[in-house]
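Notebook, student rotation project (T.W.).
Task set for the rotation: take a protein with a known small-molecule partner, predict the structure of the complex, and write up what can be learned from the model alone. Partner molecule chosen: 2-acetamido-2-deoxy-beta-D-glucopyranose. Sequence and SMILES entered below by T.W., checked by me.
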Amino acid sequence: MPLTTAFVATLAIFGTAILTNADAPAGAPPLSLFPSPWGQGGDYGWDAAYAQARAFVSNLTLVEKVNLTTGTGWEFDRCIGNTGSVPRLGFRSLCLQDGTVAVRYTDKNSVFPAGINMAATFSRSLMRRRGEAMGAEFRGKGIDIALGPVAGPLGRVPAGGRNWEGFSPDPYLTGVGMFETVTGMQSQGVMATAKHYILNEQEHYRNNVDVTIDDRTMHELYLWPFADAVRAGVGSVMCSYNKINGNYSCENSWTLNYLLKNELNFQGFVMSDWGAQHSTVESALGGLDMAMPGDGGPRGSIYGAYWGGALTESVLNGTIPAWRVDDMAARIMASYYKVAAISGNKPRPDINFSAWVPPNVTVGPVYYRANASIEEVNLHVDVQADHGALIREIAAKSTVLLKNKQDKTLPLRKPARIAIVGDDAQDAPGGPNACVDNKCYKGTLATGYGSGPGNFPYLVAPATALKKRAAADNATVVEAPNNWDLDAAQKAAEGADVALVFASADAGEGYITIDGNTGDRNNLTLWGNGDALIKAVASVNNNTVVVLHTVGPVILDYAAAHENITAILWAGLPGQESGNAITDVLYGDVAPQGRSPFMWGANISDYGAEIMYTSPTPQAPSQNFTEGIYIDYRYFQHAHTKAVYPFGHGLTYTRFDFENLTVHPFHGEGAATAAAPSKTTTRPAQTYGVVNSSIEANEAPAAFKGIKPFVYPWLLHTNSSLPKWLNSSTTGDNRDPRTNGSAQAVLPAGGAPGGNPGLYDTVYAIGFDIRNRGTVNGTAVPQLYVQLGGHDNPWGVLRGFDDVAVAAGERVHVEMNLTRRDISNWDTEKQNWVITDLQKYVFIGRSVVDIALNSSLPALKL
Ligand SMILES: *[C@@H]1O[C@H](CO)[C@@H](O)[C@H](O)[C@H]1NC(C)=O
Ligand SMILES: *[C@@H]1O[C@H](CO)[C@@H](O)[C@H](O)[C@H]1NC(C)=O
Ligand SMILES: *[C@@H]1O[C@H](CO)[C@@H](O)[C@H](O)[C@H]1NC(C)=O
Ligand SMILES: *[C@@H]1O[C@H](CO)[C@@H](O)[C@H](O)[C@H]1NC(C)=O
Ligand SMILES: *[C@@H]1O[C@H](CO)[C@@H](O)[C@H](O)[C@H]1NC(C)=O
Ligand SMILES: *[C@@H]1O[C@H](CO)[C@@H](O)[C@H](O)[C@H]1NC(C)=O
Ligand SMILES: *[C@@H]1O[C@H](CO)[C@@H](O)[C@H](O)[C@H]1NC(C)=O
Ligand SMILES: *[C@@H]1O[C@H](CO)[C@@H](O)[C@H](O)[C@H]1NC(C)=O
Ligand SMILES: *[C@@H]1O[C@H](CO)[C@@H](O)[C@H](O)[C@H]1NC(C)=O
Ligand SMILES: *[C@@H]1O[C@H](CO)[C@@H](O)[C@H](O)[C@H]1NC(C)=O
Ligand SMILES: CC(=O)N[C@H]1CO[C@H](CO)[C@@H](O)[C@@H]1O
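Predicted structure of the complex:
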């Protein structure tokens, strides 16, 4: 896709270097951008934050600034990652901590439902409330930066190991999840991290796979939810392990400089995934701001790090301009001040745990690897508050009722004899924390494995909660926990009024292999003999109810068609209240309102894209996302494949009608593209404070006694001859486009956090009514799909949803807005979002295939 001359000319006016990426593979977007855009402030609180950050950073020496950018090393300090500190000003190190469903590696924390469950709620308010609760737990432990939420993987491939940590393969739904989670977390004074940026879609080869992607797919699919995170004011973005179009993500001038910092106007900082940094100079110029966990570095490096002292040296030898390091520090501190202001500048709690001692231990080393400073490192601060109730509510409401034969199997009506079948209903031997990082597959599955989960305070197994409930009805319960003993399962199920069969499928991060599954799943069938178990029970009991705890879709065609399988529920990864939540749903105390956030195919090939499990070139594996925008339901539509259960599908205990669709264009907002950003250039790069380039100012003070393996910011030059670079300029070479700090052009699609603010203008208001035709209250989840027109767009794309409580027999009016972004396509040549003149349509549905209302969209006055 060559750049148009007009586009190049526009940008050339401002002296910004849009370089053709000579190394990019054929067909890759040729865009990269240097220098790395500097943070400037802006709306949504960034101006005030930058004012504070500049004042703080202006007071720092070069080595103090470098200290903020570089982690002290893996397992050297108390958190999963710690930056250096500024002792002179009493500024303690920043504490960074996993995970995505819990505060990892501590105790007295909660374990929340996974991101994929949040997507299944289709509820902005529940997403927000989980974000707030999680934010409060991280903050309560003294953590500054929580390492979540996840929009990458987005879910290109259904077997992707970490899809459950994210939300949904639909970018709009994931974008809402990101926006609400970031907003919720940051309201508690903790910086959120949008990760893994970007195209980290599988665990196999994640460290070096080179992903080829086209510019349109990047914008319309993978970048979309990150734009929402940036618009929500996310403090940090974590670059991923993989390469994109030839360059590592953490030094990729297209994804970091061009897309994130210019087009999306990201004002926070970019941190590396743990070990995802591969260079000193290229990463700094390519847009990285914080190196995590800090140690590592090139073989034989005297610094033991790519940054730390090496970054200091690179500034002093004129390779990296001082303003770039000032910008790194300012971005980090601006995020810090911004989030502090949101939460009312409450005092910053001390770090009161250690990730590296077992959770039940109190006294241990502050510096774990050095085994130094033995003291009370874990104060066991209880941060759970009343989050258990929220977790139970979300877990119940995210449960998707896929099948309910004749609408009458569920809710249960006091069955007298109940069979509970399957290991997935039971407690794991040794308890829920028997295996660190959840790396055993035993007992009920309430979360996946890897760095996302944390220790459970408790885990209510389904059998425990169901037996309690059954006892209240004087019902008899028979259990068959062994998945491989089909005779026992059948014996338990025979004659039961209802046979509840629990089954699961796990996945996680690629550093763990369970049953041959290295992060990514090897298949889409159930684990642990689950399918055979379900079939065995269904062959002897004509009221078999299947409950699934899975990380994503499994092949269910046989169960959907089976006459004796009267109900199927997908409960996802519900967290610590699993058993209570599923009991609430089964007995009708909570009406299920979950909707499937992905397609349920009959075959793995129905999804179009699959995991690349092996590569002919394992040292340099590559992958081409040739399916483009066609993933999940977009691909099924494209290939005319019928799903077993579609995206958006989910039953409840009543029926809803949708009526009276109205579509109102908003006049006065009718330009095909948003107006140019109000500022079309930035100011020149700024330095904050002065660099003292003497050796003494940049070496550790003679009296300084360091912790042995720590990464420090100081020069390590024992050589007596003064290197000549100490006299050279530290302002950067204006002839080198990578270090030229002149004013920079703002891209036409940019201008404010999340992109051009005009993208978020409402262009249509859509109204309709929902009627509850049943006899019980329920929550409808109307979904708005848009057809953007022509042959190159999916049949429909999700562009609105709501969770609407409607009482039995009542009617509720719903309004949804469509923004300019919602009806635009990415125009590669114009490098902008454009509303095409193709006829567009809007659909209101119960799922992506169950459409109740439709209308053409009247043309906007363009
Ligand atoms: C990737 O696939 C696209 C579409 O098939 C093709 O145009 C391009 O040349 C491919 N790139 C590489 C590096 O294989
Ligand atoms: C700068 O540092 C000095 C101590 O060296 C301190 O008194 C002053 O408050 C600091 N200023 C800012 C803006 O942090
Ligand atoms: C950098 O951080 C380390 C670790 O917190 C600290 O010991 C050291 O004094 C800091 N260096 C400077 C120059 O402030
Ligand atoms: C400057 O120092 C950095 C870090 O040691 C090194 O990678 C780079 O090659 C040096 N550049 C020059 C021009 O000396
Ligand atoms: C901590 O837990 C481990 C594993 O359950 C146990 O072996 C150990 O005795 C406990 N230690 C303390 C101090 O309670
Ligand atoms: C259960 O049985 C007890 C004792 O037989 C009886 O008192 C109680 O009413 C029964 N409860 C229900 C819900 O049937
Ligand atoms: C799929 O993988 C799971 C987990 O490893 C395994 O239990 C199951 O047997 C596999 N299914 C097939 C059809 O091989
Ligand atoms: C359904 O269950 C009944 C027992 O209630 C059994 O006789 C029948 O064969 C089952 N049907 C199928 C298709 O397995
Ligand atoms: C199951 O079979 C029994 C006995 O034939 C019948 O009474 C009952 O209605 C059936 N249940 C369902 C859910 O079909
Ligand atoms: C149904 O909703 C209505 C209106 O919100 C409420 O008054 C009523 O109590 C609800 N009924 C039940 C059974 O929850
Ligand atoms: C206000 C209005 O137009 N109401 C209509 C909504 O749709 C139902 C069913 O089609 C009609 O009966 C109402 O008159």
